[in-house]
What does this fold into?
Amino acid sequence: MASEHAEHVLTPTSYISHHLSFMTHPVGDTPFLSVNVDSVVMSVLLGIIGCGFMWLAGRGATAAVPGKRQALVELALEFVNDQVKSIFHGNISFVAPLALTVFVWVLLMNSMDFLPVDLSAWVYKNVFGLENWRQVPTADINTTFALSLSVWLLMIFYSVKAKGLGGWIHELTCSPFGSNPVLWIPNFLFNLVEYISKPLSHSLRLYGNMYAGEIIFLLLGLWAATGPSGTFFGAILSGGWAVFHILIVALQAYIFMMLTIVYMAMAHESH
It folds into this structure.
């Protein structure tokens, strides 16, 4: 009995490990291939919420004095359009909606970090029967890589569309060092490093910041286990960190959007 009780004693390691455990579902019989169900469900749900909010704002738009919802959406549209026009010198009919979608979606996923982890875990367990459930999709490297790879594939697609397959291959093998056949391999290797680094930096920057923010909230939450004074100071520090984290959440969504615009602009430009 004593050993069973010791196994259930809450320790800092078990507390953090529990909150950082995914609801994982294996795919087939492959041991290393699985799906983090919580990340997928939360991403899809927040995407639906973001699209629904935009749809409602567009449906209720009026030429008269706009309401708060319409004013917010118009402000976001104008902001994103200005950013796209300053970087992308072409037809923005696709890039601007893509940038807006990326910004709103990432912002919503990042904002899930503001929900109290212990209260959320209690709701997921006692209301929905979910023992492990991560509520911040962008704190999962699989989510950020999926987002960055989607942008990366779009970049390659529009690069081939703008320059032609031959022009794209020529760019890979003949820039930046020149078109001499001796330089084809060095040019290709140089461009290969650039192409690989784009999705890596795009995804890891967002993941690292959101994962670190989640860890800090959990560390501050551990203070509640030390007694009333720990609960008091932990609540104050958590509130202060949440205020600072607002900047991180918004900034990371902005950076992810800006890199998306930059990569799409690079796809339409030639060296």
In short: The chain has one domain: 20-113+141-268. Confidence is low (pLDDT under 50) at residues 1-7.
